[in-house]
Amino acid sequence: MESLENVGSLVDEYRTLIGATSADPKHSFEDLLVRQGDWSPRAAYHLLQLAQSYGSFMLRNALAISLALEIEDGDLGF
Q1: 19, 55, 61, 64: which sits with the fewest CB atoms below 10 Å from its CB?
Q2: What's the confidence (pLDDT) of residue 23?
Q3: Phi-psi bin for 55: left (phi > 0), alpha (psi -120 to 50), beta?
Q4: Between the CA of residue 5 and those of 28, 30, 32, 53, 69, what are the distances in Å?
Q5: CA distance 21 to 8
Q6: Domain boundaries, given as residue ranges, for the chain
Q7: What is the DSSP letter of 5?
Q8: 41 burial class (0-12, 13-18, 19+ CB within 10 angstroms)?
């Protein structure tokens, strides 16, 4: 399972992708996640929805809980 230390490198990676987006950041970033991040369109959509709906405070705590409980892949199967 990915450790917490790897989150910083993921943040850097996504910041780089965000910097490459154009006019409509949400749709452009979703496309970049599919094309350059090897995410399926469905997963890219859900990732962005999670970020927009819950924000970093809630998701940071969800990450900590999933790491503590050793939950790598959730019920949705991404």
Answers
A1: 19
A2: 55
A3: left
A4: 28, 25, 24, 24, 17
A5: 20
A6: 4-17+25-68
A7: G
A8: exposed
The 10s digit of each residue's pLDDT in 26-66 is: 667 888 899 888 899 999 999 999 999 999 999 999 999 98
Residue type, 28: S
How many CA atoms lie within 13 Å of 60's alpha carbon, on the beta-carbon side?
A: 5
Give the pLDDT of residue 45.
Answer: 92
> Using CA atoms, how far apart are residues 17 and 34, in angstroms rounded to an integer?
11
**Locus of tokens 């999933």:** 66
How far apart CA 19 and CA 13 sit, in angstroms, is 10
With contact defined as beta carbons under 8 Å apart, do 21 and 34 qualify?
Answer: no
